[in-house]
Amino acid sequence: MNTGMDKDFHSAVPTHIAIIMDGNGRWALSRGLPRLAGHRAGTENLRRVIEACAEFGIKYLTIYAFSTENWGRPLEEVQGLLRILEDVIDRELQELHDQGVQLRHIGRLDGLKPALRKKVLEAIEFTKHNTRLILNVAFNYGGRDEIVCAIQRLIKDGVAAEEITDALVSQYLFTAGVPDPDLIIRTSGELRGSNFLIWQGAYSEWYFTPTYWPDFDKEELSRALEEFRQRERRYGRVSQSL
Ligand code: FPP
């Protein structure tokens, strides 16, 4: 597990930011629009936030786009979110590539239709040499599901109980090789983790804002980064000022 223990108590810029992009539905409802219009506006905003993250020197951005629980939403909304994933790949991939973004996926691809699965895998392949920003898209992702999946694979690989360590479990997660998130942002005023990066977020700093995701702009991101700079990360140790 990479807890960042080797880092200073205060970090200037987070290496890895993860975002729960919440509030699309309420953003749409407050404008008398259908919920899907909120998800579309959220997707537009995502493009701006990706660019801002790259500008600010963040190396990893993980976004919660579709949880394992989101299948329980109305069919129209589920289909709309699947279409958004497809549209993003069809329309935005070249631009993401030109910006130096490497696309990755976390979650279970086997829950998606073969054509969409193929499209995601091709997009990952197409951008695999980019290094400016690694964008992890959590789609059909659940933190508990990820841990269950890791345990199943550890057992299948015949790993003995006494060989299991923090570091080894991390290597079996969807995020293998990715440093743990330094900062997790949740928009829309909800104060929950919602099954997102529950292992990796053990020592993450959290930033909550009432702003709905489509309105979470570069200034808000700067504010979150400024607050992160003020935080003292102790990783269970005592304060440096004591
Ligand atoms: C939560 O808001 C948001 C989601 C479940 C979907 C987030 C997806 C995007 C922003 C699109 C980007 C997608 C891809 C594939 C890149 P909510 O609908 O729960 O909002 P509410 O709580 O106000 O109803």
Task: From the structure above, extract its key features.
about 240 residues; alpha/beta; Undecaprenyl pyrophosphate synthetase; six-stranded parallel sheet; binds farnesyl diphosphate
Structure explained in plain terms:
- The protein has 242 residues and is α/β, with parallel strands linked by helices.
- The chain has one domain: 3-Layer(aba) Sandwich (Undecaprenyl pyrophosphate synthetase).
- It is built from 7 helices and 6 strands.
- A 6-stranded parallel sheet has the order 3-4-2-1-5-6, sandwiched between helices.
- Helix 4 links the parallel strand 3 and strand 4.
- It is globular and about 55 Å long.
- The two termini are 27 Å apart.
- The site of farnesyl diphosphate has 20 residues, from helix 1, helix 2, helix 3 and strand 4.
Mean pLDDT: 94
CATH fold naming = Undecaprenyl pyrophosphate synthetase
Helix and strand content put the structural class at alpha/beta
Number of domains: 1
Low-confidence stretches: 1-7
Instruction: Output the helix-strand order.
Output: EHHEHEHEHHEEH
Unique ligands: farnesyl diphosphate
Largest sheet: 6 strands, parallel
Give the topology:
Elements: E1 16-20, H1 24-29, H2 35-56, E2 60-67, H3 75-98, E3 101-106, H4 114-126, E4 133-141, H5 143-156, H6 166-172, E5 183-186, E6 205-208, H7 218-230
Parallel strand pairs: 1-2, 1-5, 2-4, 3-4, 5-6
Helix pairs in contact: 2-3, 3-4
